[in-house]
Amino acid sequence: MAESTATRRSRITPEREAELYEAVLDLLREVGYDALTMDAVAARTRSSKATLYRQWGGKPELVAKAVRHSKPGRTGDLDTGSLQGDFHALVAREDDCAMEQNSALMRGLFMAVHHNPDLLQAFKELLIEPEMAEFQRVLRRAVDRGEVRADNPALEYVVHMLIGAFATRALIDDQPPTQAFLASYIDAVVLPALGVPAR
Q: Which of 47, 137, 171, 189 has the fewest CB atoms below 10 angstroms from its CB?
């Protein structure tokens, strides 16, 4: 699969690819996953459906790659010298407006995943597993620095904690996630669970 994907991707420029991904995200925000069609993407991006299928194989792969592309930078590259600094830098990569838009988008996609096994598979392969590997690099550095004990049971649940705070903010408080909310949540919940004193 990796070889065929590389072959397919080489046929368009990175700029064109970014333009297509942005159009997919805009359509997702407008109509949701289930109503999104390859016809609509083709029309919005002035592409042929054949080109879209040749490049991405289908809607699940296209959507998962669009979401992955929209993420600002690689999580594993964050290295401020402390776990608290890394977490705060992670939160600071998106402003509150972008975070609100992405929160609404992800809520819709989480619902779609339950009814679309192909989307779930694409998300696992193209988004969740690579993101988890990147995030593990950040946590491993904290363990290597001696900030977190290697046997701390909370290490296994850090991503769950962070995604939970992001995803449930609107549900519980009827407010979007913000940088301030997530930074305070990290200091009050995540760092103490890992045995790291907030500064």
A: 171
pTM: 0.78
CB 113 within 8 A of CB 120: yes
- Cα 136 to its chain centre, rounded Å, is 15
Residue 180 token pair: 């301030």
Burial of 38 (C-beta count, 10 Å sphere; 0-12/13-18/19+):
middle
Distance between CA 187 and CA 109 in Å, rounded? Answer: 28
Q: How far apart are CA 177 and CA 96, in angstroms?
A: 7
Measured distance CA(14)–CA(4) in Å, rounded: 17
71 exposure class (CB count in 10 Å sphere: 0-12, 13-18, 19+): middle
Q: How far is Cα 1 from Cα 7, in angstroms, rounded to an integer? A: 10
Structure tokens at 141: 């550095």
CB count, 10 Å around CB of 27?
Answer: 21
Q: What is the mean pLDDT of each run of 10 residues along the chain (199 residues)?
A: 46 88 92 92 92 92 91 78 94 86 81 90 90 91 96 95 87 89 95 90
Neighbours of 7 (CB within 10 A): 10
Count how many residues are written for the chain.
Answer: 199
Closest CA to 142 of 129, 130, 152, 132: 152
